[in-house]
Amino acid sequence: MTTTDIHRAIEATWRAESARLIAALARMVRDVGLAEELAQDALVAALERWPEAGMPDNPAAWLMATAKRRAIDRLRRSKLQWRKHAEIARELEAQQAMAPGFEEALDDDIGDDLLRLVFTACHPVLPREGRVAMALRMLCGLSTDEIARAFLVPEPTMAQRIVRAKRTLSEKQVPFEVPRGDDRLERLASVLEVIYLVFNEGYAATAGEDWLRPALCEEALRLGRTLATLMPREPEVHGLLALMELQASRAAARVGKDGEPVLLLDQDRTQWDQALIRQGLASLERAEALGGREGSHALQAAIAACHARAARADDTDWPRIVALYDALVRVLPSPVVALNRAVAVSMAAGAEAGLAAVDAIAGERALRDYHLLPSVRGELLRRLERFDEARAEFERAAGMTRNVRERELLLARARECA
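== RNA polymerase sigma factor ==
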């Protein structure tokens, strides 16, 4: 393998394994910030070592073993000499001396560790922005810049949020756990938000060369199902699960033969996963039966259900979707929800009405750097045969996105307008 190939393999391994690595280390050292540092140290070691020595047979195990050795060294050097650190160091040394198979046994519990990581990151000592940003950094492997763009804030602002969040968790000695009772309920809304953001990053990647990151969607679905088992009477848990299942059912149709994105109205609906659709509809029924019909995730799932029930794009009940968005705007007011509602309005009442709804929110500060705003405007202007304006909007959107596949799609739309 060339050095370039090895670097690509390291990047792929890191994207696939970093969340599990950080979660396992956090359970060992009881400090999320320190766990991330140790995982990063192992990544740097791989970048230094693997190009010369070659790829190990089990890259994930190599990263874990290296990070654990770094943890032991770090704790030994600690000037604080806390009793907790001494105990953890002895525990890690004992684990290192155990018979082969320890890593496999550890992996059996990784799923719980990931859920613990989400709940820890969503501790109420952190502000909402810090919780979500740190979780996306650790669970999705997103850079600070990518998270900043996703939240439509400057990169230095997001970097400060992440640093403050890690420092607060360490200073407050927040336990690495899935809490019980009222503590669990207190964190639930943030946990659901984080899980859905992880799913969304898999469903439409913020950056990179791939439109989808299926492993993240699968991880989010697994976390959602685990949470539904832990909290079976919470309607929004089932609402979120329904939303993810219904959206995941379209995955095979969302990418063309060359990896290009295929938008919803252009998808071959025979490729939609009917088993996942049935699961999603059942989860939505459960959420509504528990009194969660007006929950934000249940409303979004109901919108996805309208698409899932339509055998053809022309069969979609767009007036129903607009009504659901009207309800969603009331419980989850945001410019992004309003933009999605405008798209639904354009399908129910025509492109002119949709464009008027878009222009009514175009001045929102949060949408200033949001590439989907000019993308939606471009599509509506194209439908109105205002091709020069549409081309300019598509080109502006292409310049704002960080995803290679999405940029190619937007530039192709611009060329069609020419």
